[in-house]
Design goal:
With 155 residues, this protein is mainly β. It has one domain: Lipocalin, CATH 2.40.128. It is 0% helix and 41% strand. The protein is built from no helices and 15 strands. The protein starts with 13 loop residues before the first strand and ends in a 10-residue tail after the last strand.
Amino acid sequence: MHLTHPARTLGRLLVSVVGATALVAAPASAAPAQNWGRPQLPPASGWAPVPGDAGARSGPAATVYGGDLHLFARGAGDAVRVDRYNLTTDTWSGWATVPGTAGARSAPAATIYGGDLHLFTQGTGGTVRTNRYNASTNTWAGWTTVPGTAGATSA
C-alpha cells in the first residue's frame, strides 16, 4: 500500500478499528468537478489491516504529527496503544504501549497544541488523564490527571 499523493490533489487516509483489528484505506485523490467546481472524491483504493495486533478495546484516534500519522487505541489493562505510520517511507512502527499508567476507561483523543502531541482519555471516577509527546526529543511527559472532576463519560 503506497500512500503518497501527487501535487495539486486532495489526499485522505481513513482509519477504522473493527474488533481488535485496525484497518487503513489508502488515500484517494480528488479532482475538481466539471460543472460545480467542488472536489469529487473517488472511492478509496481499498482497506488494508494495520500490521500487528493492536489489542484494541476502543475506537481509534489519529493525528499527523512530526511527519507521521499517529494511531491510538485503548488496549488491555486500560493502557493506550500507539502505532506510527511514516508518510515518507510507507512503513508502520509497530504497536507499542504509551509509557506509564494511563488508567484509560475510554477511547483516546489526540490533538496537536504548542508544538506537542497531547493525548487524552477518561480515567476513573470521571477524571480526565493526559500525556504529552514531543517529537523533537522522542519522549512522553508521563500520564497526569487534569485537575478537577469533569464527570466525564467519554474523553
